[in-house]
From TrEMBL:
InterPro entries: AAA+_ATPase (IPR003593), AAA_lid_NorR (IPR058031), CheY-like_superfamily (IPR011006), Homeodomain-like_sf (IPR009057), HTH_Fis (IPR002197), P-loop_NTPase (IPR027417), Sig_transdc_resp-reg_receiver (IPR001789), Sigma_54_int (IPR002078). The modification 4-aspartylphosphate is found at residue 58. Residues 129-153, 395-418 are annotated as: Disordered. One of its GO terms (biological process) is phosphorelay signal transduction system. Residues 9-123 form the Response regulatory domain. This is Sigma-54-dependent Fis family transcriptional regulator. Keywords: ATP-binding, Nucleotide-binding, Phosphoprotein, Transcription, Transcription regulation. GO terms for molecular function: ATP binding; sequence-specific DNA binding.
């Protein structure tokens, strides 16, 4: 029989002896081996003498900041995962620590349950065998090997070897190792959700759930119950307790797509949930502790949304600790052949047809398309082609995708307009009038179609003095 693995070794750094003892006892009870230090210098001495699995450090130490320890550990490419304890309400410290490479942070006064769970996450290494006393999360599967070099099935699903895509994949593999919130930015259809999924699959949370939520698709009145859950009877028609997305994503990743569309009141509630790591279901007097990693995505310029006061600055700051930008397809044309091949294989598998081949000429023509709707437009195009083709050769129909967003400057004015504002107003007017006509002048439906809120469309209608038949009488109340 092989000898049982050694319990993980943890270094606790805090200058307050009482707190140090409390942390030490808590960790010893979990079966870890623990060492302690009261200052930066002492901590560094311990680190020079041996390797630890995790380091838990206070932010303020008598001879410097816990951040310095972090930077030194990262600078020397040591493998210890660092957890930083920051003062309550100090968002700056928490974000700074995560940006400096901390695995996670804890706010003081430290909740011991949370403390145990964060430490358990930190010491979970790829396929580490259990030591004599199994600690937490025993049912978790080991994460798929990601490999910093871009290997691993999770990253392979992100097709493309262009320099831009390689950069995205390297970043995914790197950020997957911590708990830091990630904001994925990119145009519609570029693969933001796929990137979020890859972060989850490469992380130590891969055995937990990945819950994807489209923030723009949930009616405002249901947001709170959908996010945080609801107790039976808390609203009309709620006949039983319901879990929210936060509870469903426990020990996993919560992917908040189209985060820029979250209404302001919900933004405050989300911020609180992230800060406190607790959520209160509707109609409940108690809060649920939730250990989730947040990955969000947007096609909007969130910094501009903050300036326009449509997005909370503090929430932006919290979500945007690490940013990954997924480039549009037009900036990585080299990926087209590999993408076509992978998409065609997937489409053929789904429709149980042989994989059709794409002629060089077809590929060339595809490469000439604007593909403003990015990979999703390419996928739609190939879907149509497979559905319509009769032989083994694929014939692509290059009608523009009706769902694709307009390409900048196309079919725009050939010349530079003499009055840009007037020209833009005219374009906006025509689009609004068309959307309103198509929806029978239902402003809510028109707004939804244009990705606007009702308030935004009302503002634009008023600014451009667009009148509708029957006008105000036709307005919908929502
Ligand atoms: N690099 C890629 N390799 C393989 N498939 C991809 C890639 N990028 C995107 N796709 C596919 O394209 C489609 C759109 O991707 P995804 O939903 O991730 O985009 P998105 O940026 O999240 O879009 P939206 O902003 O509209 O939500 C999906 O079917 C996805 O699997």
């Amino acid at each position: 029989m092989s000898a049982p693995a050694q319990p993980p070794q943890i270094l606790v750094v805090d200058d307050e002896p009482d707190l140090r003892t409390l942390y030490e006892l808590t960790l010893l009870r979990e079966g870890y081996r623990v060492d302690a230090a009261g200052s930066l210098a002492e901590a560094w001495q311990r680190l020079e003498a041996q390797r630890f699995d995790a380091v838990i450090t206070d932010m303020r130490l008598p001879d410097g900041l816990g951040l310095e320890l972090l930077q030194r550990v990262a600078g020397q490419q040591r493998s210890e995962r660092c957890i930083v304890m920051t003062a309550y309400g100090s968002a700056e410290n928490a974000v700074e620590a995560l940006k400096a490479g901390a695995f996670d942070y804890l706010t003081k006064p430290v909740d011991l349950k949370q403390f145990r769970s964060v430490v358990a996450s930190a010491i979970q290494r790829d396929a580490t065998p259990p030591w004599p006393r199994a600690v937490g999360g025993a049912q978790r599967q080991p994460p798929p090997a990601a490999g910093a070099t871009g290997g691993g099935p999770a990253l392979q699903r992100l097709v493309g070897e262009s320099a831009a895509m390689r950069q995205v994949k390297e970043r995914v593999a790197k950020v997957a190792r911590s708990m830091a919130p990630v904001l994925v930015r990119g145009e519609s259809g570029t693969g933001k959700e796929l990137v979020a999924r890859a972060i989850h699959d490469c992380s130590h949370r891969a055995g937990g759930p990945f819950i994807a939520v489209n923030c723009s698709a949930i009616p405002e009145s249901l947001l709170e119950a959908e996010f945080f859950g609801a107790r039976k009877g808390s609203y009309t028609g709620s006949h039983q307790d319901r879990e929210g997305y936060f509870q469903a994503a426990r020990d996993g990743t919560l992917f908040l797509d189209e985060i820029g569309d979250l209404p302001l009141p919900m933004q405050s509630k989300l911020l609180r949930a992230i800060q406190e790591r607790r959520v209160r279901p509707l109609g409940s007097t108690q809060e649920d502790a939730v250990d989730v990693r947040i990955v969000s995505a947007t096609h909007k310029d969130l910094a501009a949304e903050v300036r326009a006061e449509r997005f909370r600055q503090d929430l932006f700051y919290r979500l945007n600790v690490i940013e990954i930008v997924v480039p549009p397809l037009r900036e990585r044309r080299d990926d087209l052949p590999a993408l076509c091949e992978a998409l065609l294989a997937r489409i053929a598998q789904e429709s149980q047809l042989p994989v059709p081949s794409l002629s060089a000429e077809c590929l060339q023509r595809l490469a000439e398309q604007p593909l403003a709707g990015n990979v999703r437009e390419l996928e739609n195009l190939l879907h149509r082609a497979v559905a319509l083709s009769d032989g083994e050769q694929l014939h692509v129909d290059f009608e523009p995708d009706p769902d694709a967003p307009p390409q900048a400057g196309e079919p725009g004015p050939p010349a530079v307009p003499a009055d840009l504002q007037a020209w833009l107003d005219q374009q906006e007017r025509e689009i609004l009038v068309k959307a309103l006509q198509d929806s029978g002048f239902n402003r809510t439906a028109a707004a939804q179609r244009l990705g606007l809120s009702l308030r935004q469309i009302r503002y634009r209608i008023a600014r451009l003095a667009i009148t509708a038949p029957g006008d105000e009488a036709n307005d919908d109340p929502t």
